[in-house]
Protein: KilA-N domain-containing protein
Amino acid sequence: MAKIKVQGSDITVLALAERDYISLTDMAGAKDGDSRAADIIKNWMRNRYTIEFLGTWEMIHNPGFKVVEFDHFRKQAGLPSFVLSASEWIESTNAIGIVVRKGRYGGTYAYKDIAFEFGTAISVPFKLYLIEEFQRLKEQEQARLGWSAKRELSKINYRIHTDAIKHNLVPSEVTPQQANRIYASEADVLNVALFGMTAAEWREAHPDLKGNIRDYAGINELICLSNMESLNAVFINEGLPQRERLIKLNQIAIRQMQILEDTHTGLFGRTLIK
Structure:
């Protein structure tokens, strides 16, 4: 569930069956208040053009749509005696473009195409602002998805990295404590190469912050760290000593961050290791 603000009114957006549905109830309430919302939706659905629009949308997107029942409503639409509620439309035609929900976040919702069309019944400016704010919401979701994907990539590369350590640096029959010390040492190789400090040094410098140094990294740092983890796994497999790997990784971090920070400024300074 998300909310967008259109001309000062909060409009609810629900994700149902991998589709975005926008609250017609909220939209109608923005016009004449919540008490009149249901009447505004009913009046909109009495219109012949509305019924034809809804029916055409369903025929394109809904294989289970009942065309015969739709044709009955289409013939009746526009007559003075014709009244149609959202619930009746859904039950009679097996429609999926409009849904009615009860309880929390209850109300009448419509797939975005239909909601945008309903926006015309509110006002043309309202419709245009609705489209703009909905697109902004989708852009924000994509940005968050991109961040999540980078975090997942970093986790995957970390597993590759630790697997290489297990097979190449950890002696047989070591205790878990010994293995942990080796893993921590390799993690600090990356920390020093990229951030210029170990995890312990960062905690000492930031006692008021929770988490670890990587939790406070920016997108550029995460991208660089992901690349470095993969490269360190290769260097380990090649048998390079830790100091040599540290110098190589630091040089790579400097080059990559210089490229990445042409557009974004990172959180940490870089110092080439001699």
The beta strands are 2-6, 9-16, 19-23, 98-101, 107-111. Residues 2-122 form one domain. The chain has two domains: 2-122, 143-260. Residues 154 and 226 are 5 Å apart (CA to CA).
